[in-house]
Design a protein that fits this description.
Distance between the termini: 29 Å
CATH architecture: Sandwich
Number of strands: 7
Structural class: mainly beta
Number of domains: 1
Helix content: under 10%
Strand content: over 45%
Oligomer: single chain
Number of helices: 0
Shape: globular
Length: 84
Amino acid sequence: MHIRFLQPNPFKQFGLLSVLANETGKLVLKILDAEGRFINTIITAIQKGDQQVPLEVADWQSGQYVVNAFHGNRFVQSIRVTKP
C-alpha cells in the first residue's frame, strides 16, 4: 500500500487521502497533534487499486497534525498536515 497524497493541505473541513493498495484490508489512521498527543483513530476498509478516503476534520482545533497510516498492523507512512 502507498499513500499518494492528502489534499488539500492545509484543509478546513474535509480532506481526501489518496491511497494505492495492492490488496484489500483495513486502513487505520492514527491522528496525533504537534505535541504527540493522541487525537483520534479512523478505520476504513480499502479495496485493491486507487481510491480516495475522505477525512472529516471540522472538529479538529487549528494546528499541526501527524496522520500515521497502517495497513492492518503494518506501518505504511506518516503525513504532516495543517488545519488553519
